[in-house]
Design a protein that fits this description.
The complex is a heterodimer of chains A (about 290) and B (about 300). Chain A has 2 domains: about 10-60, no CATH class; about 75-280, MetI-like (MetI-like fold). Chain A has helices spanning about 1-40, 45-50, 65-70, 75-105, 115-125, 130-140, 150-175, 180-185, 190-200, 205-220, 220-225, 235-240, 250-270, 275-280. With about 290 residues, chain A is an all-alpha fold. Chain B is about 75% helix and about 0% strand. The longest helix of chain B is centred in the N-terminal third of the chain and has 36 residues, at about 80-115. Classes of the chains: A mainly alpha (about 290), B mainly alpha (about 300). Chains A and B meet through α1, α4, α5, α6 and α7 of A and α1, α3, α5, α6 and α7 of B. Chain A: Keywords: Cell membrane, Membrane, Sugar transport, Transmembrane, Transmembrane helix, Transport. Chain A: It is found in: Cell membrane.
């Protein structure tokens, strides 16, 4: 009796394990196939892209579309713009977000300001970008800043700064306050304790926050679509969307550019894998 | 709580002897972020009120014409706006429900087996990190009616091929599937983190009491996961409400306005129909709805302290 029960539960366990592995495998295939497919198509000649039935593996691989996109057409320029804008907004957001995050994690304020300010900052992160494009567009137009990278840096700061503040607040809250107190007792100033003790300890969090800001900015589409119209200022996503026209879609080119746009993101995702959960939940869930 | 109080007390003691900046440090450290965010959010919101009560000509030479509440009144009679509102609601409800069900289901199934497989988890996370534009063109390629992979699969299975994103009845579904592909991992990852932090003792007690695993799920797992579920749903709903990139590339809002969502409609009104005043009125409506929704959510779920 006891043995049959144990065998039955063991075979149930095996079945569960097998079905779990099968599910993981299926999820992997479904996750990776679309990414593989865009990569595969970027290496095909046009005629092979249109082949029916589809060519699952490029038979005649070529770098033609990469040459077209990055040499003949200005995709390298777009990528550089994306990069510069991402660096600029990340620098601003991380600098001020770290200070604000530290202040909200450590200091007390009268009238529950800490709670109200935290809440307000989080709610600015919830604001859909479409809502701010009209005033931003009109303001940038007024200051003659349309089609500039500075305008994009300013616009992106609107969502990166609340993000950085909340992330850093959550990292600082995890640090023991005693170390900073010891530094102050040893004669350091309050600011010195932040700069020399808390900041170095929060370095992994700082790096993760910066990488998330870079990713979010690199991926952004709508604001860039509205604010920039020239080659000198447009970002990579806009460049890609520009090759999907009403009449033709330049499949090879957009596959090449799209795949290249994904590569830095995938590398970054692996760098921040430990911080993914926290980053994606704005510091609310600790992974 | 005690820790924070202690550090504040120390700060007060030191404060008396330091110069002004040191005493004002708590405000000085917070001020830049607050000022920047005020400039980037409050100013646009106020300016939008101003724009919404005017008729703004695409010609910058012409003065703005005050029209009072006319733009807001149009919200009630504009059929296109109602279509966009309904499409956004349909998309948000269906996409987020599917992502939630799939993500939670997968997390429950795989919790035991995948917890330590960090590399595998990271691979599964790739879709949501990718640029939405890259995701959109990838699915455009898959949905392509003539040479797309999906129709090849349909053909092999002996099923009728479809126009997918170009089909009146399937367009919204096509958008939803692409979104589910990109964002299910998000729910999955958060639920996995939540499951990993569950305490063991209540389950042991329940086991002793002979509670079925179904009961354990409803009476223990779901209540414990509630905070994580709340933040996951909040972020997904806010994201779904702002959907733009996928629709812009996959369907452009068509066919027959079946996938015209609010963000796209505002974009079209502002730029294609060159009517920023009315677009501002719609934007204010969207801002109002998202603020109410997110505030309610955050307060209710006690996300702040």
């Amino acid at each position: 009796m006891a043995t049959t029960l144990r065998t039955r539960s063991r075979s149930r366990e095996t079945l569960l394990r097998l079905s779990a592995y099968a599910t993981i495998l299926l999820a992997l295939v479904l996750t990776l196939f679309p990414v593989y497919w865009i990569a595969a198509n970027s290496f095909k000649f046009d005629i092979d892209i249109f082949a029916v039935p589809p060519e699952w593996v490029p038979r005649n691989p070529t770098l033609k579309h990469y040459d077209q996109a990055f040499i003949e057409r200005p995709f390298l320029r777009y990528a550089l713009n994306s990069f510069l804008v991402a660096i600029g907004t990340t620098a601003i957001a991380v600098t001020f977000g770290t200070m604000a995050g530290y202040a909200l994690a450590r200091f007390s304020y009268p009238w529950q300001w800490r709670k109200h300010v935290s809440f307000w900052i989080l709610s600015t992160r919830m604001m859909p970008p479409i809502v701010s494009i009209i005033p931003l567009y009109l303001a940038f137009n007024y200051f003659d800043m349309l089609n500039t990278k500075s305008a994009l840096i300013i616009a992106y700061t609107a969502f990166n700064l609340p993000f950085a503040t909340w992330m850093m607040k959550s990292y600082f809250q995890d640090l023991p306050v005693e170390l900073e107190e010891a530094a102050i007792v040893d004669g350091d100033t309050r600011w010195g304790a932040f700069l020399h003790v808390a900041l170095p300890l929060a370095r992994p969090g700082l790096a993760a926050t910066a990488i998330f800001c870079l990713i979010i900015s690199w991926n952004e589409f709508l604001l860039s679509l509205v604010i920039t119209l020239t080659e000198q200022s447009q970002t990579l996503p806009i460049g890609i969307a520009g090759r999907v026209t009403q009449y033709t879609t330049y499949w090879g080119e957009i596959s090449a550019a799209g795949f290249m746009a994904c590569i830095p993101i995938v590398i970054f995702a692996f760098i921040v894998q430990k911080h993914l959960v926290r980053g994606l939940s704005l510091g609310a869930v600790k992974g | 709580m005690l820790k924070k109080g202690k550090s504040a007390a120390l700060f007060e003691i030191g404060g008396g002897f330091e110069h002004w900046a040191e005493r004002r440090l708590r405000y000085l450290m917070l001020a830049p972020a607050v000022v920047i965010l005020l400039a980037l959010t409050i100013f646009p919101s106020l300016y939008m009120f101003y724009a919404a009560v005017h008729r703004i000509s695409p010609n910058p030479e012409l003065p703005w014409q005050f029209v009072g509440t006319a733009n807001f009144a149009r919200l009630f009679s504009d059929g296109q706006f109602h279509v966009a509102l309904r499409n956004t609601a349909v998309f948000t409800i269906i996409a987020v429900s599917l992502e939630f069900a799939l993500g939670l289901g997968l997390a429950l199934l795989l919790d035991k087996y995948i917890r330590r497989l960090t590399f595998l988890k990271t691979v599964l996370m790739i879709p949501m990190m990718l640029p939405p534009i890259a995701v959109a063109i990838t699915w455009k390629l898959i949905y392509e009616p003539q040479f797309g992979v999906l129709n090849e699969i349909m053909y092999r299975l002996g099923l009728p091929t479809q126009a997918w994103a170009g089909d009146v009845d399937l367009a919204m579904l096509s958008i939803i599937v692409a979104d589910v592909w990109q964002w299910t991992p998000f729910i999955f990852l958060l639920m996995l983190a939540g499951l990993a932090s569950l305490p063991v003792e209540p389950y042991e007690a329940a086991e002793l009491d002979g509670a079925s695993s179904w009961r354990q799920f409803w009476d223990l797992t779901i209540p414990f996961l509630k905070p994580v579920i709340a933040i996951a749903l909040l972020l997904r709903v806010m994201d779904a409400l702002r959907l733009f990139d996928l629709v812009f590339i996959l369907t452009g809002g068509g066919p027959a306005d079946r996938t015209k969502v609010l963000s796209l409609y505002i974009y079209q009104v502002a730029y294609r129909f060159a009517d920023p005043g009315y677009a501002a009125a719609i934007s204010l409506f969207v801002l109002f709805v998202t603020l109410i929704l997110s505030t309610w959510f955050m307060k209710r779920m006690r996300l702040v302290e």
